[in-house]
């Protein structure tokens, strides 16, 4: 397939750079993947500058409740973790990448502990393990009960500070600086001050590592923090990189439902609550997951979200309910202190009553095409963590494989760049058309994407969405670029690719569910890979999935 599907912004109208500085590696983003990359690079003697658009640690990692998946239990086996990941991934995983992830996950957890992470331990002093959806064994390492991500951020943030690594907070990464032969040679950045971009400058570097997270804010309700707007994916695409699997947006099944007007980041109720025995019921108290999947309430996340969506369609209700009341109030409050408190703040008592929940956007399975060493299709540009699409997550990420992937990829990417830093390249002034999407269009983009490209989709809705995205107003030529315009342009880029891919993929698989094409089709066991040309036209091709001998595992 190589059709012109849609058009997006090919380059931003950049503010003039007032300064230039050099470093070995620029890391963009300060979640688990970015922080671990920076720490490991510094330990290898590389000069690193971290650029992050909020404060250090403002990314999605801090909000992660569940934990990190790793084979550590006496009854567990790497083959089981591989198998569970491939099954959840619904045929789109890259098996070699999955095997690498599983093999290196225990070392990544040990590295984190070595840096001082205070994991929850069992009576023998080893990491306590719990279970989440799609896992056949207890293998989720956690911290602070339900504050695993916050402990990862604290640990890596402290490690960064101890090493004196330079961090540019409240700084936007705008576009890559490219050499004449198309290599990434640095970044144009600008400080964000009250939404304006000020003090723009150029960071020259031999490698740029994107660790910018996902794009949950493309949807009205999400578990993601405000910064998850797909900036890194859009930047990479504009730099010439390929992106893939963008249509595979994972919806978390149990996000607290607080009413139809709820917008922005919502309270996540961890899958680990179901791992400890909570169940999903409808308004009449009927268990909706019984009979829907052999693993019932612990089915892979795409199955649970789709089953909830079907229940809501059938009943006309806005939410289903998560019932943990039979687990004992003391146990629930002790094991999940943060979630219990967040539910209480919204007026619900998780320890004693079923609480209303509904699916909300949670994780981008797709992203910038990269291997687990972070190499993208553009020399000098690397991507690790949620912004990357390594094939580990396939069409639906297995629970708690994400921080694990971020740490494994970060360690590998740092090892690669410690050993073999690309030669310095001289950036050339950007050429070609520039454009940006009017930030006033943001609410329309999120409302329409939520309506037409959510848990379930169909051709009519997606075609309407594609038409709307194609006709949105652009920034008035000459108007100053600001932070809201950068984010809105990124959201428009991601929405456009997502819609094009979701329209093209005439089947249902993993996180992509078409009401008008409900079957999983063997001929669609391919990935949709996109790239931009200089004018901003999107070109899409299909690529076979790399499977080893274990072959075609589909849930
Ligand atoms: C959760 O705690 O349910 C989220 C974990 C994850 O997304 O992997």
Automatic annotation (TrEMBL):
This is L-aspartate oxidase. The keyword Signal does not apply. Its EC number is 1.4.3.16. It comes from Blastococcus tunisiensis. Residues 24-403 form the FAD-dependent oxidoreductase 2 FAD-binding domain. It is an enzyme of class 1 (oxidoreductase). Its cofactor is FAD. One of its GO terms (biological process) is 'de novo' NAD+ biosynthetic process from L-aspartate. It holds the Pfam family Succ_DH_flav_C. GO terms for cellular component: cytoplasm. It catalyses: L-aspartate + O2 = iminosuccinate + H2O2. One of its GO terms (molecular function) is L-aspartate oxidase activity. Pathway: Cofactor biosynthesis; NAD(+) biosynthesis; iminoaspartate from L-aspartate (oxidase route): step 1/1. It is found in: Cytoplasm. NCBIfam families: nadB (TIGR00551), PRK07804.1 (NF005867). Belongs to the FAD-dependent oxidoreductase 2 family. NadB subfamily. Residues 484-546 form the Fumarate reductase/succinate dehydrogenase flavoprotein-like C-terminal domain. Keywords: FAD, Flavoprotein, Oxidoreductase, Pyridine nucleotide biosynthesis. Catalyzes the oxidation of L-aspartate to iminoaspartate, the first step in the de novo biosynthesis of NAD(+). SUPFAM superfamilies: FAD/NAD(P)-binding domain, Succinate dehydrogenase/fumarate reductase flavoprotein C-terminal domain, Succinate dehydrogenase/fumarate reductase flavoprotein, catalytic domain.
């Amino acid at each position: 397939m190589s059709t012109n599907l849609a058009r997006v912004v090919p380059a931003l109208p950049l503010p003039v750079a007032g300064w230039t500085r050099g470093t070995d590696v620029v890391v963009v983003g300060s979640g688990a993947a970015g922080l671990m990359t920076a720490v490991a690079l510094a330990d290898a003697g590389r000069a690193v500058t971290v650029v992050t658009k909020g404060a250090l640690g403002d990314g999605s990692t801090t909000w992660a409740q569940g934990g990190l998946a790793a084979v550590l239990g006496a009854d567990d086996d790497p083959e089981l973790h591989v198998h569970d990941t491939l099954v959840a991934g619904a045929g789109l995983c890259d098996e070699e990448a999955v095997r690498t992830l599983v093999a290196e996950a225990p070392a990544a957890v040990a590295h984190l502990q070595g840096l001082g992470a205070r994991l929850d331990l069992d009576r023998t002093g080893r990491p306590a393990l719990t279970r989440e959806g799609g896992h056949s064994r207890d293998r989720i390492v956690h911290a602070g009960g339900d504050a695993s991500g916050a402990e990862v951020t604290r640990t890596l943030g402290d490690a960064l500070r101890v090493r004196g690594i330079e961090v540019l907070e409240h700084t936007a990464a705008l576009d890559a600086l490219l050499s004449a032969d198309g290599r990434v040679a640095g970044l144009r950045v600008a400080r964000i001050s009250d939404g304006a971009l000020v003090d723009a400058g150029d960071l020259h570097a031999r490698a740029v590592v994107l660790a910018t997270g996902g794009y949950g804010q493309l949807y009205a309700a999400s578990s993601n923090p405000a910064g998850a707007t797909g900036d890194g994916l859009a930047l990479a695409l504009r730099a010439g990189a390929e992106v893939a699997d963008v249509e595979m947006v994972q919806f978390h099944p149990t996000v607290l439902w607080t009413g139809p007007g709820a917008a922005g980041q919502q309270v996540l109720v961890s899958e680990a609550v179901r791992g400890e025995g909570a169940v999903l019921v409808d308004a009449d108290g009927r268990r909706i997951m019984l009979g829907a999947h052999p693993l019932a309430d612990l089915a892979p996340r795409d199955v649970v979200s789709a089953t909830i969506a079907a229940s809501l369609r059938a009943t006309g209700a806005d939410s289903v309910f998560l019932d943990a009341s039979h687990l004992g109030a003391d146990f629930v409050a002790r094991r999940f202190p943060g979630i219990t408190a967040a539910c209480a703040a919204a007026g619900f008592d998780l320890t004693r009553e079923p609480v209303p929940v509904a699916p909300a956007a949670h994780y981008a399975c797709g992203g910038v095409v990269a291997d687990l060493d972070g190499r993208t299709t553009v020399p000098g540009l690397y991507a690790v963590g949620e912004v990357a699409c390594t094939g580990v997550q396939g069409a639906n990420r297995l629970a708690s494989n994400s921080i694990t992937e971020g740490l494994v990829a970060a360690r590998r990417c740092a090892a690669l760049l410690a050993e073999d830093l690309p030669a310095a390249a001289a950036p050339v002034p950007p050429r070609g058309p520039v454009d940006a999407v009017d930030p006033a269009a943001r609410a329309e983009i999120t409302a329409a994407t939520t309506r037409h490209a959510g848990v379930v989709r169909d051709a009519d809705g997606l075609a309407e969405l594609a038409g709307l995205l194609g006709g949105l107003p652009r920034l008035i030529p000459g108007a100053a670029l600001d932070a809201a315009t950068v984010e809105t342009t990124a959201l428009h880029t991601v929405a456009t690719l997502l819609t094009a891919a979701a329209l093209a993929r005439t089947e249902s698989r993993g996180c992509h569910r078409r009401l008008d094409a409900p079957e999983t089709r063997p001929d669609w066991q391919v990935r949709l890979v996109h790239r931009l040309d200089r004018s901003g036209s999107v070109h899409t091709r299909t690529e076979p999935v790399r499977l080893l001998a274990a072959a075609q595992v589909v849930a």
